[in-house]
Design goal:
Length: about 300
């Protein structure tokens, strides 16, 4: 086997002791801090791979050690040579990007809004906790959806909040478009209990093309655009003293999640339906909390629509 490119470091192909790196990593004892164990283990793995892939010799290695020692010896309260080295290798900038990305992802937000669309109807039937909005479709993907409505600022559950929900049948039609469905099918209004919880049965939604028999369809055709909306469920969440949220949730598995004809998808509204076992009423389950901003707290954000008390 010839000594050539960077593949020498891979475990299978290596000409060097295949057990060596694992032995070093596994020397870490059980009482080591788990994060430290992860970091040092990963560092050893990458360093060893680097040394093998580049077939670093002892002369090269000692030159690097000497450079690190000189950087340390030169550093003091007025001079930080170690950091300067890390900066010119891009490492501090990369950690900066990682840190700010994690912070942005972790930051809690009120429930994001999404467009109302043309198919909301007022006065959908009021249902009791745990009821189903589905009439018919025994073989469809019935889903238990549940969660809480929370005050965004305090995290407190909101009692008697209204969850107004509507979605299409598996044929992609809202009941108002479909003479085959009973009036107000797949629409309903639920109210949270004292613990802020709601619970209902609906269907796992289906992607569908928006109606193409009018000017909207005509324009899509002229623009060479497709008519598909990703599978979604609509909601209006409202509660006394809170700004209502008009929104939609989207099924992550949908092929149109990245090219919604109505451009409404936001990452925080993309959900994963979980399979549900042992429930004759539902094959899937979805837990989702809605977070509302109170008019009181909204004043401090300059929230549009916040009433001045
Ligand atoms: C829909 O079902 C919808 O939700 C939107 C926003 C546009 C067209 C059809
Ligand atoms: Fe819709």
């Amino acid at each position: 086997m010839s000594k050539t490119n960077g593949t020498n470091g891979t475990a299978a192909a290596s000409r060097f002791d295949p057990n060596f790196t694992a032995a070093v990593i596994n020397a870490t004892g059980p009482k080591a801090n788990p994060r430290l164990k992860q970091l040092v283990g990963g560092l050893v793995q990458h360093l060893h791979d680097f040394l093998r892939e580049n077939e670093v010799t002892l002369d090269e290695y000692f030159a690097a050690i000497d450079m690190i020692n000189r950087a340390g010896q030169m550093s003091n309260a007025k001079r930080n040579e170690g950091q300067l080295l890390s900066d010119i290798l891009g490492m501090e900038s990369l950690c900066d990007e990682i840190t700010s990305t994690l912070a942005a992802e972790a930051a809690d937000q009120p429930t994001a809004t999404a467009i109302l669309g043309p198919f909301w109807r007022k006065d959908a039937p009021a249902y009791a906790m745990g009821d189903s909005i589905v009439k018919g479709f025994p073989d469809a993907d019935h889903t238990l959806m549940h969660g809480r409505v929370l005050d965004f600022d305090t995290g407190t559950p909101i009692a008697n909040a209204e969850v107004d929900i509507w979605h299409t049948a598996p044929n992609g039609l809202y009941e108002s478009q479909d003479p085959e469905q009973p009036d107000m099918n797949l629409r309903g209004r639920f109210h949270t209990g004292p613990d802020g919880r709601y619970s209902l049965y609906c269907l796992r939604p289906t992607k569908y093309p928006i109606p193409d028999d009018g000017p909207a369809g005509e324009l899509l055709g002229l623009l060479d655009r497709h008519p598909w909306r990703p599978a979604h469920i609509h909601f209006i969440i409202s509660a006394e003293g809170y700004k209502s949220v008009v929104t939609q949730i989207f099924d992550r598995r949908d092929e149109h999640i990245t090219d919604d004809v109505a451009f409404a998808v936001k990452e925080s509204l993309v959900v994963d339906f979980a399979p549900r076992q042992g429930d004759p009423k539902g094959k899937f389950e979805l837990e989702y909390d809605f977070k509302l901003v109170s008019f009181e707290a909204g004043k401090k954000y300059g929230m549009p629509g916040a009433k001045n008390a």
